[in-house]
Amino acid sequence: EKLTNDYSNRIEALLKAKEEEVMAI
Description:
Layout: H1 2-24
């Protein structure tokens, strides 16, 4: 369960970073 949670958090962070990238452009 912990592994899955860490994975989800990582995916969420990646998506957020992508959004910010798009906003910056």
